[in-house]
Amino acid sequence: MKGSGSGALNTSRLEEERRQGRAAGETAFPISPRPCHRGPSARRGWSGRFALALLVAGCSPAAVDGAPAHLPDGGGGAPAEPPSPAACDASAADGVAVFASSVDSGDPQAPGAPPYAIDGCLLAYVAPREAGDVSGALRLRDLGTGEELLLAPAAETPRRPALAGDVVVWEATDNGARVVRVRRGGETQTIRGPFHHAGEPRVAGDAVVLTGWLTADESGDTDVFLYEIGQAEAVPIASGPGQQRFPDVSATHVAFADFSEDPDGRFDEDERDLADIVVYDRRTRRAVTRSREGKQSFPMLGAGERVVAYLEWAPFHPEPKYEQFDLRIGDITALADGDALAASIEQSGLPYVLPEVRGELIEWVERPADSNASLRRRPADLSAPAAEVPGLSAFELFGPSASATITVVAARSPGGELELRGVAR
């Protein structure tokens, strides 16, 4: 947000608008994500308090999951035109320390989700824990300015952050129960719905998907819920026998894993597990099962409106499952029989973190038992073979998270701390 006059005049006017917005109980600044820029800018001359207000308002590239990176205006009008793509250096993420046990042991972080997420110039991450804490605090950093905001204290054991524009979601613990928090426009709330507790959130520009447990039993029945920004509560979009879990969301679709065909109806460490990917059209509200032999799970919708990727174990799979799996990708409107093999991935030992599918690239950590870990990437259209990202072979590597222009991956030298490395895309 750039002013048209002197810095002092613009700050005074905008601070007055901010006070008026607070008095009216409204968001102080427009919700549309805005670009960030490294280096000198008018923003650096503003007060620290105003800079933090800009951080809360957020910044993002022009597109999220194949859709314009803007949010509805809340009044039923058409959204504004998206801003120009963000211009953040990948190196701005280098050296950010993250909570090691969230990826080493899976406690309190769940396997499959890194304790950090990036979109545009914003990085949400779980910081290292302090003495006496079991977790770290969740923070939001503007990579263009270095400003940070505390999103959740360590006492809430925040985990599994996801980020799209200025919308941040994460799991937390509230009075002993697992909940999903969402922050947008400077305000944080707990997503409510007809479930006992909730988790596994993912976010697109205007919506959050999550898994809702219908009882206190972690192995019990679960459904997939959709929360559209501004609504009173999340609504179920996938129910039925057994568990429906691990959803992802885009501007047009929701995809999730359906375990209703599984012998025990749930996701667990069982070599007999069976599941299919189901795709839900947000416009028509129709769900289509993409049936394949064996087990398919953890769908990803980040490569455009017509693309779905997922992990597959067929017809047999190892235990733990994350040690070896296939990554497949296909046309979301076509039969699953035609889905292509993008990679066969090996991860020897903890941590087990999912690949990243974003824009034109698929990325994952390969960790063979007999050699060093590497960050691999391949075009999402499979027009070229996978290639190793250079410069990371000396580190232990953990799961990637990506924006349109930057991939971050946690890395650790022998005996060192777990820190992020940024790689240009």
Descriptive key words:
425 residues, mainly beta, 4-stranded antiparallel sheet, 3 helices, 7% helix, 38% strand, globular, disordered N terminus
Write a structural description.
This protein has 425 residues and is mainly beta. Helices cover 7% and strands 38% of the residues. It has helices at 7-23, 48-57, 101-104, and strands at 63-64, 67-68, 116-119, 122-126, 138-142, 148-152, 159-164, 167-174, 177-184, 187-190, 197-204, 207-213, 222-228, 235-238, 244-249, 253-258, 276-281, 286-290, 295-300, 307-313, 324-331, 340-346, 356-358, 361-366, 374-379, 387-388, 396-402, 406-412, 419-424. Strands 3-4-5-6 form a four-stranded antiparallel sheet, covered by helices on one side. A four-stranded antiparallel sheet has the order 7-8-9-10, with no helix packed on it. A four-stranded antiparallel sheet has the order 11-12-13-14, with no helix packed on it. β21 (324-331) and β22 form a beta hairpin. The longest helix is centred in the N-terminal third of the chain and has 17 residues, at 7-23.
Gap between N and C termini, in Å?
26 Å
Radius of gyration: 21 Å
Summing up helix and strand content along with how strands pair, one would put the structural category as: mainly beta
Shape: globular
Low-confidence residue ranges = 1-86, 103-109
Rounded mean pLDDT score: 79
* Percentage of residues in strands: 35-45%
What is the gist of this entry?
This protein has 425 residues and is mostly beta strands. It contains three helices and 29 strands. It is globular.
